[in-house]
Design goal:
Elements: H1 4-24, H2 36-49, H3 76-83, H4 97-101, H5 110-135, H6 141-153, H7 155-163, H8 167-182, H9 186-199, H10 207-212, H11 216-237, H12 239-253, H13 270-279, H14 291-311, H15 322-339, H16 352-363, H17 369-381, H18 389-437
């Protein structure tokens, strides 16, 4: 039987090798795709700056999958991109928020703006790392530095920098929201969560644990800030632009079906597993996806989230610690990547807080063999989309998340009463000393 210390070294060494392999995988990415996502944001921001907001969603058609579609050269969106030195550009599929926020960068050329964008992302990633280590109680400078380096070497993070994606910004906003919530500043925390959801709907999953905790003040703060941000978007972009997003983009994006083409395996979601298996069935129309299959995918995703929400419930007398709250929200961010209609590699940056939490448990030898094995297999699945490994990422992520929530639930029942009684005893001792002094 292996000694615990040896197993710990084995897991840490394996993690280091996986992260290193992810770093070396950079050389296989196409240079032609570099900054491709940022080019979309930049073009959209140029349209907002020129008061051409109505053309943000040029080329998007209802019930037609708009993912990985190059904008028609005849559209205003594509012409605007060419005028700024961008020969080809994909369709813009986000709420108008991202385009509005990046308007200041349009005073620079696209290459300069891309460098500035990645510099900003580097600062945000460092800030997110600091908040994460503080909330997890990591006080050692060496371990904190290791977390920061691991986040940078994380393959989804490198993908974000390569394509100029917004996932690092989302990670920062969610971590800021959790940190502010831990310090009792629920109003500002609500703003951070609402802004993240206004950029991309995925972070909206954080409302599930807040519902499970019956934190109605936090939910009210998020709802009010979402209403305020929607009002600002309406003022800046107009009602017709918002109508186009909700009428065209959202319905088209909700399916998540890309089929099993070469790029289809890179869409790492639970739904894509169903669509890929359907693609290989004999005698079926691969160009059309039956509504029953699409509803089955949504039902499975809903059941996963509902079960996770049930595991996150707390009783009125329970007192959650900050690291427990962070752990649950981190796990829901991991689940959001698993059940979203589309989760390309860069979207999995949002799984980083959960992985750091699991890594901390492993380093403290509080993790069992199943959890450690799933942790390593999950990291391996993110290395490449070849050999159908991309399809293994979501089920491994769901399994890791459910096990993590079970462990947190068990930890609350076993540890929290003792901790809470200790707090009560300390408070009583302080009151006794105060009476004696008086």
């Amino acid at each position: 039987m292996m000694k615990p210390a040896f197993k710990l070294r084995l897991v840490l060494a394996s993690t280091a090798l996986i992260l290193l392999a992810g770093t070396f995988s950079l050389r296989y990415w196409s240079r032609a795709e570099k900054a491709s996502s940022f080019s979309v944001y930049y073009t959209a921001a140029c349209l907002v700056r020129s008061n051409l907001n109505l053309h943000l969603y040029d080329g998007v058609e209802r019930n037609v999958n708009p993912q990985l579609v190059v904008a028609n050269p005849a559209t205003t969106f594509a012409r605007t991109a060419r005028e700024h030195g961008i020969p080809t550009v994909m369709l813009y599929l986000y709420p108008p928020t991202m385009a509005d926020l990046l308007v200041p960068l349009t005073v620079f050329s696209p290459p300069v703006a891309f460098v500035l964008w990645n510099m900003l992302n580097s600062v945000l990633l460092l800030a997110a790392s600091i908040m994460l280590t503080q909330m997890l109680g990591i006080r050692s400078l060496g371990w904190a530095g290791l977390v920061a380096v691991s986040l940078i070497c994380f393959r989804p993070t490198l993908s974000c920098f390569h394509f100029g994606q917004a996932s690092i910004l989302l990670l920062f906003l969610v971590m800021a929201g959790v940190s502010l919530h831990a310090h009792g500043r629920k109003n500002m925390a609500g703003f951070m969560f609402a802004l993240a959801a206004a950029i991309k709907l995925t972070p909206l999953i954080v409302i599930v644990p807040f519902v499970a905790w019956r934190d109605w003040k936090m939910l009210r703060a998020i709802a009010l800030w979402i209403a305020a941000i929607m009002g600002a978007l309406w003022i800046v972009n107009g009602s017709e632009t918002l109508n186009l997003y909700f009428r065209l983009v959202l319905p088209s994006m909700s399916g998540g079906n890309l089929g099993a083409e070469n790029f289809g395996y890179a869409n790492r979601t639970l739904g894509n597993i169903f669509y890929t298996l359907y693609h290989y069935l004999p005698g079926v129309d691969h160009d059309a996806t039956p509504n029953a299959l699409m509803w089955a995918v949504k039902l499975v995703s809903l059941l996963v989230i509902a079960y996770a929400g049930w595991l996150s419930q707390v009783k009125k007398e329970d007192k959650l610690l900050d690291d427990q709250r962070l752990g649950m929200i981190a796990i829901f961010l991991l689940l959001s990547c698993c059940v979203a209609p589309f989760s390309w590699l860069y979207a999995w940056v949002l799984s980083a807080p959960a992985l750091v939490m699991f890594g901390k448990r492993i380093s403290e030898q509080r993790s069992n063999a199943v959890e450690s094995t799933l942790f390593l297999l999950f990291l391996v699945s993110l290395l490449t989309s070849k050999f159908h490994l991309g399809l293994a990422t979501p089920p491994l992520g769901v399994a890791l998340a459910i096990i993590g929530l079970h462990r947190l639930r068990l930890g609350r029942h076993l540890e929290e009463p003792t901790i809470w009684r200790l707090h009560l005893k300390l408070a009583e001792a302080q009151r006794a000393r105060s009476r004696k002094t008086f």
